[in-house]
Every structure is written in C-alpha cells, then in structure tokens.
Amino acid sequence: MATTILLACGAGAGNKSQAKESEKEEVSFVTTDGTKFIKDGKPYHYIGTNLWYASVLASTGEGGNRERFCKELDNLKAIGVNNLRILSGPDAGSDLANPAKPYLQTAPGVLNDTILQGLDFVLAELEKRDMTAVIYLNNAWDWSGGMGFYLKECGYGDSPNTLEDGGYDRYVEYCANFAREPKALEMYYNYVRLIVSRKNSITGRLYKDEPAIMAWQLCNEPRAFSKENKEAFEKWNIEAAALIKSIDSNHLVSTGSEGYIGCEVDPELCERIHADKNIDYLTIHIWPVNWGWAPRSNPDSGIENACKRSGEYIDEHIAMAGKINKPLVIEEFGYSRQGNVSGTGIPTDSRDIFYAFIFEQVKKSVETGGPIAGCNFWGWGGSGRPRDLVWQAGDDYLCDPPHEPQGWYSVFDNDTTTIETIKKYSKEINK
After folding, report:
1. What is the CATH number of the domain that holds 381?
2. pLDDT in tens, 94-132
3. Do β-strands 252-254 and 282-286 pair in parallel, antiparallel, or remain unpaired?
C-alpha cells in the first residue's frame, strides 16, 4: 500500500480558544504491494537508467557541472526515463586502479561536503521533475573504491588491479575478506548511518523524508566472492538491510544484486537473501558480452544467443520473485556497439535489438500482472563525450566507469535509434 507522511511547514497564529492550524506537506513514497510497486496510490513501473556519477556532476566542486546535470535530467525526462540508479559517491580508490574522482569518502567517516551537497541537489532536482532515485551505498568493484576502500583501511593493502594478468582472481580473493572482516563492516555501517540519516541542505528535509528517493541499496553488485564465504555474505546483507530500515522506514531497501550469478551461482542463496523482511524487491543485472553469452570480438554475431540466454535468466528470476511475492527490477543491462568499438558515432544496431528485447520483458510483465516492475539500462552518457579510451580527471563523466573503455556502454544524446527505442517503450509501459 502507498505510504504518505505529513510534514509540518509552519503554524498559524491564534488565541487559546482557536485550534492552531499547521500547513502540511504531503509526501508520497514508493512502496510495494506483493509483486507491484505503488506510487501515489497507483501501480508504478518505469524505464530508468544508470547515472552513477550524479552526485559528483551535481556538485559545485571538482568535476561538478550543474548546468549539464540539469540538462541531462531534462533530456531523460523528455524520452520517458523517470528513475535513476546512482552511487552515493566514490570512496578513495586503489592506487593500482583508475578510480572515479573526486572522492566523497576520503577516510573512514570523513566525507566531502561538496559532493554531499551535490547529492542534495540531485534529490531536489529529481523531485521537481517527478523522478526518483535508487542510491547504492557501496561497490563490489574498485572503480569507486568500494569494498577495497574498507579493506585497505583494515590493513589488507590496495585492491589488486583486475586488468593485469591474473588480477581478477587476486581481486576476488582479496574482496572475499569484506563480509567476514568486522572492522570493515563497522566502517561501512558507519558510512550508511551518515548518509541515510543526512538532512538535505537544499530542501531542509531529512533524507528519510525525501520523496525523490525510491530505494536505498546495500551495494553495487555485492558478491560473496567464494563459496566458503556464502554464510558471511548472507549475514552481511541481512544486517545491512536491517540497519537501513532502522534509520529510514519510509523508503524501500534492495541489495543491488546481479541475481543468482552474483550469489555464487546459487539460486537458493539468492532467494533466501531477497526473502528477508527488510529487503523489499529483487534485482538482477544482465551483461551478455561480459558474461560470454556473446563474443566480445564480434557481439553482433551473438545477439540472438544473448537474447535467448537473457530471457532464460529473466524467467528464472520471475519465478523466484513470484515465490517470495516481491517485485523484480532488471536494474543493469547493456550491449556494446558494433564491432565492440567504443566511442560516439559507432552503430548501435545490436544494442537497439537487445534494449528492445529487455523492454519487451518489462512491457509483457506490466500487461499481464507479472513481477517485473521496471528496468534501468546502463547507462546514460548524454551530452558527455569521451576524450580518449582511458578516463582521466577532468574528462567528461560517462556511464562507463574509469576502468572501462570510455563510450563502451554509454548512450549518448546523439544515439538517435537507441533513444527512439527508449521513447517508444517508455510510452507503452506507462500508458
């Protein structure tokens, strides 16, 4: 059912015989009713995007450009995108990686107020446009510091560079320590408390009262990183969700999971975590090229298999969502450009086919009362343009993180066929 609260904005004058009247502001939050999202008393479904860099771009400091940020929101709203999945802000990253900068968290519990005010601005501007945000509070990958930030502070050293030979295996072994390291978890929990309990410097509201927040998310793509670590991983997910709910019972909480692929390919573990009372909906991510469902060297040749395997993965999680009676969101998906070439002006024929395939799954679910309530494509590059394949401080922010080729998965504002596909399905899903 929908939840609303009344916030006092002021009190009228009067004598003792008069009832004091208070001006009230009614705020409606996104809630769940079985496998549906509800907003303003009606089913809520959406086509959204990923804009991890929102809080930095919306700041007034290094990397900030509020004019561009507002332009991106206006352009997204115009094509029917009404939900953003964003990072609260980058943590100090590994010296061995190419992390996103500037940092929100420079040391445990030490936050950059300029980027915090950027996050405040994000929420204020989203509210003006009747848009919502899902905010993730950590990252399993070191491009924004994430788990590696906390482990380094606990004496584990810099996170290994995943791009080096054997680097990915070393990184997996390194990050498996996070869920079982009490000091790392307590630093993370302290960060969660600082962000979720914040008061917005622009709207004057506590974050728990912000209508533009749809959900908090534990982490981007949380993983146990080893089969032996599954118990500790499950415990961390449940503890973190309970902590967020204890601070903010108004907003939804989700994990940020890729689905059972992110749970050591263990559907039962994925189901148990998402069945927890403090986790409100199920999430999945789909990366056909990254996961080997289409050849990286020639993704166009693999589009048919990519759609087939993606459909099977979606169906498995539809069944899971039905079993636990919660909504399902396909909150990350992407497909590379023709020839796996990065940059602007490269044809997106296969990407457009893949986007349409995912949008069709959402549309069909909405029309038949299924559990898929929304999706977020990865991701929006908008008016940004890559200077080179490798991101460096001062370059435009794109949705491709700094460790990935710039322009690989980003949708630019001149990708006309992709944008037309997004517009078409946004209208059909929200009619």
Report:
1. 3.20.20.80
2. 878 889 999 999 999 999 999 999 999 999 999 999 999
3. unpaired
